[in-house]
Amino acid sequence: MAISQLSFDHNEVSRDLIDSWRSFKALVESLEESELNYETQCPNWRARDVVAHIIGIEKMLLGEPVPDVTLDVSPHIKNEVGELNERWVLALANLDVTALITLLSETVLERELALSKMTESDFDKPGWSPVGEVPYKRFMSIRVFDIWTHEQDIREATHRYGNLDTSPARRSYLEALYTMGYVVAKRTSAKEGDSVAFLIQDAEPFSVVVSQGKGIVEDANESSANCSIITDLATFMRLIAGRVTAKELSGGDRVSSTGDVVLAQEVLDNIAYTI
Prior knowledge:
Strand content: 5-15%
Helix content: 40-55%
Distance between the termini: 32 Å
Radius of gyration: 19 Å
Strand order of the largest sheet: 5-4-3-6-7
């Protein structure tokens, strides 16, 4: 069976975006107040800071200006996108929990209303995104990945695991899957014709083959792969997002490899692909 393609049909993207907002909101509303202060795997961010980040980005997409707050020098702020994120987190840091959750709910409703008024041509219009200028529908697919990933940050911190088999989860996985071509071809010593199989439990397995200097994502073919990486969906997405490293997981059973152990380790050491 051919490897799944990432769909940018504006109706499908809209559906996944709305579902990701609603799932995130439902999780946040289910938390105890103390849980919102739990530390997450995002450096310096508690669960409530993750909520503030999601609010901030959606507010920005509604046309609101980024808050003018003074940022301290911090190693986890690595670029302009990171600086933008931190400004919203700081601006909302003093809101009490009730006000923060209310603001999240209001923001989600505003974004759903704005989305419902958009035409197909609006979704096709190019504009700014964290990955460069792309059609709005492409940017919103990335938003699904971001929201779903941050929902997982909170789930991991509060031990409320779940939402791994929904349409937003699948879109997020495909967003991550197709970055592996770059990782294998550009961040490792893989040579022309080399291939790496990714055997992801509870998700679609795939291989990356190096061809003409590029990593081509194909159907999984373990028999012809130089090495195979075996893990589960949740762990793969944590690795992709840079929330954990292969070194931190070494010695456990969440990730393993077969075949060329050097190449497999290079992939795992360079797998993080988020901004």
